User: What shape does this take?
Amino acid sequence: MTDAQETAADTSLRTTGGAPPDDVAPAPIPLLEPREGIPPVVASDDALARVIADFAGGSGPVAVDAERASGYRYGQRAYLVQLRRDGAGSALIDPVGCPDLSGLGEVLSGSEWILHAATQDLPCLREIGMTPTGLFDTELAGRLAGFPRVGLGAMVESVLGYSLEKGHSAVDWSTRPLPDPWLRYAALDVELLIDLRNALEEELDRQGKLDWAREEFDAIASAPPAPPRKDPWRRTSGMHKVRRRRQMAVVRELWTARDQVARRRDISPGKVLGDAAIVEAALALPPNTQALTALPGYGHRMGRRQLEQWQAAVDRAKALPDNELPQPGQTLAGPPPPRAWADKDPAAAARLSAARAAVSELAERLHMPQENLITPDTVRRVCWEPPKTLTPDAVETALAEYGARGWQIAQVAPLLARALAPTP
Assistant: This one.
């Protein structure tokens, strides 16, 4: 009997009331408690050793999830790791007490890991020694299968008929001790992941997309960690208002000073100084702390020492020689924004229009989002600088060079070859 079937058989997990009429879809069954209750939080080497032994002795794929403290703490480290496996049950591990989970990662090596939106959790799992060799991403599977809503709660409800309580998704997971309602929520997030994976595998197989999904999962598992972002200060919200290079220098100095404070205090940068306040100071170029205090975001609640450190950042930017000021924009690696194509290269604009229409029509027929069929950036690059010889083989080669998977190339290359052909 599967987890889902056992849950359905457990009437303590259901709402009260009579069965709905036959012509009405049954209401989802709320999951109120994990099957074995809330697992104890593992925060010691001895407890971790027992979990490692339990999961080494389990069988089949492993459901994995991680909770971060986004918006509260600096960075994206994991503050709770949840796992479930047949024969081992569920486990909740505290990476603060157990910062090295490489031993657990080793015993799970070679097993399929089930994650929902894997690319969100893999970076923080890698930091604590857990890297899958193979995975099944239930969110991506839902996209490929054509589900209109692919959040975990929506998928569990539409595929399995159960509802998950999602009220604690944005809490501060660095809180210690973690309250029982949060731990209950966390345990339930992996309670039915194995069942969800199995049901989605069947659906993908029915649609003839299972091999496509496996290619996507392999690509995620084998992808290297993302390199550090270049000039992250340029992503400050409201940056589009900042036009002059001197003002850009103020944004850079304030962003850097804020990041240093946030890192030292282990607090979200936005709680140290808001992006809007950074932009206000860049636009105003205040001459002193009194003028800075008058700007939004630097009110009377801010201490004198804080004001002085922000003003010092502004003053550093104002004192820079012209040759050290940032350039107006980042050098684009690739084609210009599509809105400029009509003026720069009308033929390329026509190719892009035809390619977009063809991709859209195919994605609709395949019941999946266009960006999962082929990334918009890949389409733009091929349309801006198409192969010199517009044969299907040449288009396939170009798509592969841009990182398209085999199944994507097989589906998209023929229609792109037609879209790239010059109009007679």
Remarks:
- The radius of gyration is 26 Å.
- DSSP finds 20 helices and eight strands in the chain.
- The CA atoms of residues 375 and 404 lie 8 Å apart.
- Confidence is low (pLDDT under 50) at residues 1-22.
